[in-house]
Amino acid sequence: MIDRAEANFFGRDTWHVAQKPHPVRALVLGANGKLGNMICAVFGAQAAPRLELHPVSRDGSIGLGWSVGQSPDLLPRVDAVVALWGVTPAHGAPLSDNSGLALAAMDLGRRLGADRVLHCSSAAIYGSSDRPLHEEDTPAPASAYGAAKADMETVLRTPQSGDGPVPVILRIGNVAGAESLFAALGRDGPVTLDRFSDGHGPDRSYIAPGDLAKVLEVLCTLPRNRLHRVYNVAAPRVTAMADIVRAAGRDLHWRPAPDGALRRVALDTARLAEVCAMPDRSSDASWLVADWQRWSGRG
């Protein structure tokens, strides 16, 4: 179990972490990205005695400097690699680069002695559903980004040569501070949401950056034989986007939802809960906003 100080930070003593006799060394790729910045801020401020973090950024602005194609000789030997890098539509690069980055992370993990590599996939690989989406559901992406992440997962399932690390795919829901709604909250003016025929706005599976950091700690330190190859990663209940806007104290405007807009995307997180049970408050809009403000420097 986690120590009392960490339990107080997360609200309840509900996180289950496998204790190891020495800290697990983890390399974090993409430390200078929006998500990587917040995750590294969490680990920099909160004690994680089971985890020794080694951030890596392409330009060396955070942690060690390294990019694909460079020699890994200057990087430390590690037990795990956390690949927070990736290409989104906002980057302007081909979305297919996600597959290449995933393979590069696997190769780097092998060279550095890691026994696992955690890869960031997305809830966007799923199709529309009225029920919570489970890891065993067949991917049916409705966007080019979701299709690119599904292709990345397929590449990672291709057997790797040798005795390298195992890939662990994280189908992450909306991360507070690293998606479009929170980008809108970071700008001035009212926030506009889609309104559906039932009179409500979108519901999504969210996770706060501080909670995601704890999930990463758990999956880096869990014995390898207990790891599943795919996890949905989110708080256990969906959160209404309108509640997030109101919790941030912002004006909310509505527009009719366009054809194809998704009313609800809910992830089934029972598999994750087996090893990492979320605090009750993790789905609360106020918690998501406060955690975003804390770790993005807006608090």
Automatic annotation (TrEMBL):
SUPFAM superfamilies, per the entry: NAD(P)-binding Rossmann-fold domains (SSF51735)
Pfam families according to UniProt: Epimerase
Domain annotation NAD-dependent epimerase/dehydratase: ranges: 77-233
InterPro entries: Epimerase_deHydtase (IPR001509), NAD(P)-bd_dom_sf (IPR036291)
This protein's name: NAD-dependent epimerase/dehydratase family protein
